[in-house]
Amino acid sequence: MSEKSTKKSKIVFFIIGCIVLIPVIIYFCAVFYFRNRFLPNTWIGDVYCTGRDAESIASDIRNNIQIPDIRIAWNDEGYKDSIFDSTLVEYSYDLVDAVYRAKDSQNAFTWPVALFRRNNLHLEPIIDFNEDRLRTLFVNTERVKAEDKDPACYKIVFDPSKGYLVSDNHSGRLDTEKAFNALCEELRAGRLYLELDESYYFDAPYSSAELNEQKEWEELEGYLNTDLVYDMGAEKIAFDPAVMSFLIVSENGVPVKDENGGYIIDDEAVEKWVDDLCLAYDTYGLDREFESSTGRTVTIPAFYSTYGTELDHTAELKFIKEALHSDEIRDGEPDIHVPVYTHEATFRGLNDIGDTFIEVDLSDQYMYYYKDGELILETDIVSGDIPKGWTTPRGVFAVYGKDTDTYLYGRDYIDFVSYWMPYFRGYGLHDSDWRDEWGGDIYTYDGSHGCINMDKDSARTLYENVEIGTPVVVYDY
Known about the structure:
By secondary structure, this protein is of the alpha+beta class. Among the domains are: about 220-350, Ubiquitin-like (UB roll), CATH 3.10.20; about 355-475, Beta Barrel (L,D-transpeptidase catalytic domain-like), CATH 2.40.440.10. It is built from 13 helices and 30 strands. The radius of gyration is 47 Å and the shape is elongated. The model has no long low-confidence stretch (mean pLDDT about 95).
C-alpha cells in the first residue's frame, strides 16, 4: 500500500471515529446534565419540568399550593354545610419530598427515550393533620350536636295546639363515627370535602318499652279518629285527633283511662268546645265588623239588625255529649251533623253574609250589589231625610219580599214604585221616578222616608237578580 493510500485511510478512520465518538460524548454529557435534573418532556401536573432541578420545582409547587377550607355537606334538610378553616386542624400538604422522589425515580441514561414521549409524573404528597382537633370541630357542628342532644326516642306527646301525636326520631339517624372516619379518609387523600349520602344514616331499633308505646298509640289513635263531622256550612269540623285530644280527661299530658281501660270524656271540656263554637259563629244580636267596598272596616250595630246566626247552645251540648259517648261515631260510617239554630242566616259559616249581598253605604250615598262575589250593580242612592227625623236604620238585614207596580203608604204620602224589595219592617229598596238625581248630599235636605231610593234602571237590575233572603248591609262611618 502506498504512503498516500495509508494517509487517506487514516483520515477516513479518523472521520468515522469522530462520527461515532461525538454522539457518545453528547449522550454522556446529557447524562451528566440530567443526573440532577428532570428528563426531557417531563411534566408534573401543569408544571413543565424539563431541565429543572428538584429544588426549583418543589419551590414553585410549594408557593402555588392553596389549601381550601374543609367542608361537610349534610344530607339533611335544614342543615347548612359545615365549613372549617384547615389551619385549625394543622392540615399540611407536603409535596417537596415527593418532588425529590419523583426526580430520583428517573434514569438519566434514558434521556433519549424521553425525547419521544411525554412523561407525566404523579406525586404522592405527605399529608398530616391534627385528628383530635378535627374531632372537636366535628362534634361541635350543629348537625352532630343535634344528634347527641336528641337520642332516638318514640313517645306519645301532647301538643297544646295540635293535641296528641307521636314523636318518633328513630329514622334518619346519623352514624357520627362513620361520618368522622370518612372525613379523615378524605383529608388523608387530599380531598377536603365530604358529602354524606344515605349510607351514613340509619333507622335506630325500638326498645321493648317503645314497642309497648306503639301499641298504646294505636289504641289512642283509633279512639281519637271518629266519623263525626260538624257541617257549619262553609266550614267542616272533623272530630279527628286535633279536636278529640282536647275532649278527653288527661293528667300532665297523659290520657286517663277508666277502670275498664277506656278513655274518659271530659264533660267540662266538651261544654267549653260548644261555648267556643258559639263564640266563633254567633252573630245575631251582636255588633259586627264589615269590610266595605271602599276598603274601610266599619262596625255595624246590632240594635236594629235582624240578620245573623245563633246556635242553639243547649241542643248542641246535648247532642255532642251523647255522640261522644256513643260507639256509632267510630263505626266507619260518616256522621254529618248540621247544628240546630235559634236564628239561622241565609248563608252558614264564619262569614254568614257570604259573597251575595247588598251593601248600602249611607256616608257616600252609594249602593253595591254582589252576586257570588261578582259586582253586579253599583249606583247612587238617596236615604232617609235626617233633618226630618226619617233616619235609615243601620244594621244587617235580609230581603224578605219582592213586588212590582205597587204603592207605598205613609202618614203623609202615597208613592207608586215599579220595583219594591223590603228588608226591615217598612223599609226597603225601590225606584223613585219623582227624582231627577241621586247621591251627594240630597238626603240632608230632600231625603226619603227611610227607604233606599235609586233610579228605575238600577232598581230593575237589582229586582231581576236579587233573591229573597239576600243580606242587606247598611252602615255609615
